[in-house]
Design a protein that fits this description.
Length: 65
Amino acid sequence: MALDEPKDNDKVYEIEGYKYLIDQEFLEKVQPVKVDFVNYGFKLDCAMEFGGGSCGSSCGSSGCG
């Protein structure tokens, strides 16, 4: 996860005042995607296993937050 501006190929979700962006082509490969806020940052769960994640992240993040 990273801060970013929307691009033409992004799907934008606004949930509780926060905007989440995800590339539409990538979304098709990894859905369903679940984003949870936990004590140390965000936890991502998705249908694709990337490996190497730490802090409980299983969807492409290799670090906390």
